[in-house]
Amino acid sequence: MLRERFSGPLDAAAAALSDSTSDDAALLDHDLWASLAHARMLGATGIVPRSAARRIEAGLRALARDPRALRARLDPALEDVHLNVEVALTRRIGPDGERLHTARSRNDQVATDLSLYLRDGLLALGSGLTALARTLVAKARGPDGRQVVDGWTHLQPAQRVYWAQLLVTHARRFARDAERCAATRSRIDESPLGSGALAGSSLPIDRALTARLLGFRRPSRSSIDGVSDRDDALEGLFDLALVHLHLSQLAEEIVIGSMPAVGRVHLSDDFVTTSSLMPHKRNPDLAELARAEAGPAIARLVGLLVVLKGLPAGYQRDLQAGKPAIFDGVDRGLLHLRVARGMIEGARFLAPPVSPASSTSSVEVADALVLAGVRFRTAHRRVGVWTVRLASAGRGLASVSRSELLAEFPELRQSPFRIPSAREEPERRRSHGGSSWREVERSAIELTRRLATLERETRRERERLRGLREAIGAREPAWLTATFATSRPAGRPAARGASGRRRG
Questions:
Q1: Is 275 a catalytic residue?
Q2: How many CB atoms lie within 10 A of CB 75?
Q3: I need a surface site. Which of 241, 302, 363, 478 has the fewest CB within 10 A?
Q4: Which residue, 86, 78, 69, is CA-closest to 35?
Q5: CA distance 411 to 422
Q6: What's the CATH number for 107-354+437-486?
């Protein structure tokens, strides 16, 4: 810790509160990349002798080759990952390591590292989201998708639909999430590096060069905004809050559907647990955990909003409190997306027996009366009264014969209409986006094309960033490599070196 100008060390409790080393470990790969870019610029501009800049770059590349070892040696006494990197570099190459911090501040360092981290995090989340959406679409277009179940409104049987329509509906939500992550990522296009502590630098730095080396479109236009802006973090946490909201909705579908009394979802043994007391239990615990995670995800967004709401322009130490929310948000989001994908892959989506009291085709009867010239409100009232009479006798429309139908509604004598069976019912709704198989299949095909576009764009961006890293000697974080390995479409070979833990 930098204490030369003070009479003694920081109070022990204050030092513990100030330490961000364990949190900042998530930024290590990004700090090394940004430091390499900064060293390259210092040499190119002559601010640091070129020979010294080359030694600095070589030392940083050596550290980047073994980030696990460097991470294991992070010293909390040095307060953050940035000073740890500088000290490790100086130990490796000697006094020239002390030149690295020329013309930069920890304020623009952390802003730059966070931008690089969040850009990678959103890229990984987009990959996980499209993989989950593809899994849902594949399940929808398989045998389970053809099963017909009650569609619910108010958790009451409403109209019969194919499981495929429900699954594609959930997939669409995750596709929108992926598009949202891509849009947020595209706005992370200004490099804070070179903003200094607040007001830039009096040295002849080349901020355009470091921006290019790090894959940004341009340097930040204001040095004050460069060090204090956290809009991209807020947008990322909002995107994550919506991701978890949609995961929670999918989880609720699974939890309710898994109830024996409902019997429309069967999870594989990989994603259920049993009771510590009751051996017969098959608990959808993982779905329940996904449902619960929406709360912390929303709290992370609200927490950062509250941290930022009262800050003046410029870097304030309050901003440190927002970093764990970002790291935890990306970590938890990627983990839950992997679990949800596996859960859907192994699940069976079933069609429970139709209840004799089912009357989900009541709208079809009313519509048939409308085509026969009856006003809709009149038709609605008459069909409603009739279903009440049938229900009091323990019956539903599914049990009504053609002769009974005509006795109740003589207006239909000239109509070929008959009450559809439970399996026939979805096919009657052929309006655009409706429940007929033709429309469900059309929707699934359109979404598959949309997902392919998203995947191409994500792959292209990853290759661009990987090329920039390789050109300067930085490395892709192991967790990012692992995410792309686990979220690739079925049948695609894994990338080499695609193993590693999130922060390893």
A1: yes
A2: 13
A3: 302
A4: 86
A5: 24
A6: 1.20.200.10
Distances (CA, A) of 357 to 314, 400, 409: 66, 11, 20
Q: Would the pTM of this model clear 0.90, i.e. be above it?
A: yes
CA distance 211 to 33: 12
Which of 51, 186, 268, 275 is catalytic? The answer is 275
The pLDDT confidence band at residue 232, using thresholds 50, 70 and 90, is: very high
Let me know if 244 is a catalytic residue. no
Thinking of the domain 12-102, which architecture would CATH place it in? Orthogonal Bundle (1.10)
Q: Of 319, 290, 293, 294, which is closest to residue 306 (Cα–Cα)?
A: 319
CATH number of 362-421: 1.10.40
Q: What sign has the CA pseudo-torsion 407, 411, 413, 415?
A: negative
Phi then psi for residue 296, to 5 deg, are: -60, -35
The whole-angstrom separation of Cα 31 and Cα 474 is: 10
Per-domain boundaries in the chain: 12-102, 107-354+437-486, 362-421
pLDDT higher than 90, residue 219: yes
The residue from 7, 154, 202, 403 that is catalytic is: 154
Query: pLDDT digit string (tens) for 34-73?
Result: 999 999 999 999 999 999 999 999 999 999 998 888 888 8
- 310: pLDDT strictly greater than 60: yes
